[in-house]
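Record passed on here:
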Amino acid sequence: MKELICIACPNGCRLTVDEKTNAVSGNKCLRGEKFALKEITCPTRSLTSTIATVFDDCPVISVKTDGEIPKDKIFSVMKELKKIKVEKRLKIGDIVIANVADANVNIVATKNM
């Protein structure tokens, strides 16, 4: 049995998952069951961070993934972000790194420069 706290909605249900049968209990909505099953098979997260730039008026720019990445790739993605220095002005949604760490998601700007 594995215990989780659901983050799929504001309820924050305390879930119990039987890993042998994939039975989920404690969820108040269907999103909780879906979250629990995904969390025990392939947990993923969105990632937000900043990247350095060459501009004095904007030394860093905020970025995020445009989808979720497997939790075990978070540190690989962060290593790639540390290597980057933005040299052109970006707008919200511009892709900074495509297919980061082979995770099938892009790093996109979340701020206009």
The CA atoms of residues 91 and 112 lie 4 Å apart. Helices lie at 30-41, 74-83. The chain has a mean pLDDT of 94.
